[in-house]
Amino acid sequence: MSDLKALLGEAVETAFADAGLPPELGRVTVSDRPDLADFQSNGALAAAKRVGRNPRELAAEIVGKLAGASAVMSVEIAGPGFINFRLTDAALTARANAIAADPRLGGEYVATSRRVLVDYGGPNVAKPMHVGHLRASIIGESLKRIYRFRGDEVLGDAHFGDWGYQMGLLIGAVMDENFAAAAVVERLNAGATGEDLGPFDTVSLADLDRLYPLAAARGKEEPAYRDRARKITAALQAKQPGYYALWERFRDVTRVALERDFHALGVDFDLWKGESDVEDLIGPMVAELDAKGLLVDDQGARIIRVTQDGDKRELPPLLVVSSEGSAMYGTTDLATILDRKNTFDPELVIYCVDQRQADHFEIVFRAAYQAGYARPGQLEHVGFGTMNGADGKPFKTREGGVLKLNDMIEMTRTKARERLHEAGLGENFAEAEFEDIANKVAVAALKFADLQNFRGTSYVFDLDRFTSFEGKTGPYLLYQAVRVKSVLRRAAEENAAPGPITVAEPAERELVLTLDAFEAALAEAYDRYAPNALAEHAYRLAQAFSKFYAACPILQAEPDVRASRLALATAALRQLERALDLLGIAVPERM
Ligand code: ARG
Question: How far is the CA of 357 from the centre of ligand 1 (A)?
Fold first, then answer.
């Protein structure tokens, strides 16, 4: 089954080819004058210029070649040579019934399924998350869902940052104040066995949150403090037992809290692998890179040079082993490429990470290609801009600190509750249901505000606007979806059943054309790593439904029409819910 736009496009391209013209000039777009046409092709103008002919004449010739398609559409030449197409009601009726009967609501599978890994979220032990992590989570979750829906075999991995310098900083800082824990660490490091690890249980997430910024600041100012942290990091990576045991505690408490916060945001990873998980691969990898002649000694460190002919500016090398002998951020990334190749063998890895890390990925990817761990094209950095505060800088919380995911969600939830009360929604519901709705409204607000922009665009955090039930917002979309649900519930109560769809009214035509556009939006979202195409589609669909509902009575209509409109409303609801689900947004039953 193909969407109408694609079918029409093929027919017009063939007509161009038959007229001896480049078929790509026959491209069809949605009409910008819906009152006159459904689709249009402007190709005759460009073609006429190329071959030096009169555009209207050329358009007429092309139209002549489309005569066979008159059963599905009327064709007209407008202005200097635009070709306008209007589909027949019968063609729209057939398409509407096909979409309604399709479990995928008109969304196609890719021709060949691939193994795809989405690396997103990227939270760290102890280091608080910033807006980059929020966006990575929202966009990455959506890409994961879109790729999976399209038929790829997809895994999402959090790539937990648990193996870098910040671990050395934090181990030192905790040991400086928690003497009981420090004593256990020392004894384990000295080779003691059968230690009681009880004192580690006193190390809480709150301790880590409090200590990390202090330690990070001290590390910047005091070389001795920094050196100690680097040495501890190297010793940790060598799995010195005391440090390792304390680190396990850090990792575990952070992970539990992070997973809970991500889950509240509707972000769930298939794999929660850490940088630390590739530690055992690093030694052999370094030996192999060395054997391949890729490693260069550089002031006690070992690097891979990645500059290429044609570079406009010089990229720094990949630091593989630091002068203390530790693995760096790029080292674990390179080893992770190897690990993924050995385990899942992905044909595509999507790194959904802040645009500010573009150079990092360029360097790592080049090193991976040199080492033969991946082929060019297999590793894609899908970057994005920042979410800014009113001051135009990356958003910070009221204390001026970096964002805590939990605070962000809680703040949005509070606003969502207010909005629901203002709108008189969910008023007589039990507390648990109301809270569930408030959470869904909050998640929809945050995610839709993010995903409606092309990811490269930065945007301003504006909670009032994001949570409004009016305008182009997540809550508006939920409200519309819930409204359709309530219509369908009422119909069920009245024993009104959906039946075959017959398209007749302008608002019905528009709704079906919008349903038809799902496939194009999905394809664009997939091809360009651009969930905003689906966000736009969801918004248009909600608007088309709204117009349809205002213009075409459902329950009051006579039985055949009622059955048709119920079926159309059901298809619209299911496609809207599907599109929202692909954005990572869940719809409540009622509100
Ligand atoms: N943990 C990193 C950070 O906070 C992000 C990880 C992104 N993924 C990767 N494979 N490097 O900056």
Answer: 9
d(CA 268, CA 266): 6
Q: Do domains 4-87 and 411-582 have the same CATH topology?
A: no
* pLDDT value at residue 400: 60
pLDDT at 245 over 90: yes
Q: Is the CB of 339 under 6 A from ligand 1?
A: no
Whether 119 lines ligand 1, by a CB cut-off of 6 Å, is yes
Task: Please work out whether the CB of residue 199 comes within 6 Å of at least one atom of ligand 1.
Answer: no
Tens digit of each residue's pLDDT (9 = 90 or more) over 155-201: 999 999 999 999 999 999 999 999 999 999 999 999 999 999 999 99
The domains of the chain are located at 4-87, 165-264, 411-582
Pick the CATH number of 4-87 from 1.10.940.10, 3.40.50.1820, 3.30.1360.70, 3.30.70.2860: 3.30.1360.70
Q: Is 351 a pocket residue for ligand 1 (Cβ < 6 Å)?
A: yes
**Domain 411-582 carries which CATH code?**
1.10.730.10
What pTM value is reported for the model? 0.95
Which residues 6+ apart lie within 8 Å of 88 measured at CB?
71, 72, 73, 74
343-380 burial, b at 16+ Cβ within 10 Å, e below that, comes to ebebbbbbbbbbbebeebbebbbbbbbbbebbeeebbb
Ligand 1: residue whose CA is nearest its atom 12 = 122
353: CA distance to ligand 1 center in Å?
7
Beta strands 348-352 and 379-382, pairing class: parallel
pLDDT range class, residue 332, cuts 50, 70, 90: very high
Pocket test for ligand 1, best of 129, 133, 403 (most atoms within 8 A of CB): 133
Pick the residue whose CA is nearest to atom 5 on ligand 1: 122
With cut-offs at 50, 70 and 90, classify the pLDDT of residue 494: very high
Euclidean distance between CA atoms 415 and 438, whole angstroms = 9
Q: Which of 120, 160, 351 to mutate to test the pocket of ligand 1 (most atoms within 8 A of CB)?
A: 351
